[in-house]
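Input/output pair, single chain:
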Amino acid sequence: MKKLEFTRETTKKVWISLTGYRILIILKALMEKSRTIDELVQIIEKNKIINKVTSKDTIRIDLNTLKRAGCKISRPSKANNYKYELLSHPFTFKLSDKELRVLLRLRDKLTQEMEWQDVLIFNELYSKIASVTFNEELINEIENTKPLINVDVNILEEFSSPLIIGKKVQIIYNSPKFGKEELDIVPQKVSFENGKLYLWCYSYKYKMNSLLNIERIVKINFVDISKTIETKASYDVTYSIVGNALKTFEPKEFEEIIEKTKDSIKVLAHVENEFYFVQRLLLFGKDFKIISPDFFKEKLINKIKLMQKGYEK
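Output:
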């Protein structure tokens, strides 16, 4: 067994096993993904510490050593493109069910305060933690409960680009009310709120500003880059007041009463500060109802569900 000698700044010599080090490099490479024998040879030869020609037979001997240590490695064949695949190994990271629950609650809590870009990075971190457990059930649970699971990352990146902001864009949107439909919009910005990603945009169909759930954007058909269209990031919400709230209701400067009866008041709100508007609605308790638009109904429901979840043990 050959040894490598390293010298620290203190001039103290440190010896390591060249064979052992090479085997660990192969194990790490197979943990990342399946590899051909040629790929494994290249990884070893390009390693800055080993940095020497290595034979395929040496790699095969190292693979057999890993198998004797408890690793299950598939044989290369035409069906798997002649690659060695690490099926399992005894060097796993173990997570108890209690520890998993803590990790999932921590993720849910932290990602509410993050930018969406950081949420995607956090998802990758959790996927890597799950992968080293080699526990399929645990891996699936972490993957299937991750934030933004239904968001098409390619579509998200498109709408995050400043090049598309202010341009006329045609999309296919899976509306909860109308199903899949073509919509012409002018994107304004992407926002991450209450665990959901929204696209603020002007909608030609409704001739008003809207918020679209990015999870429901199926496809971008085309982008008209010929000119930039100026739009204002606001939208209208129609709601009604009933019950005890009728006695004390006073419209704000951004609201107008469009209908009034003995039992209800219908209000049109021009929403620019959404946080303030939602807080105002919640003060009415059960004595209000959103009439339109549907995207705001969905958004408010998600916000209330999130608030309820915060009180769960």
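The two ends are 56 Å apart (CA to CA). The chain has a mean pLDDT of 88.
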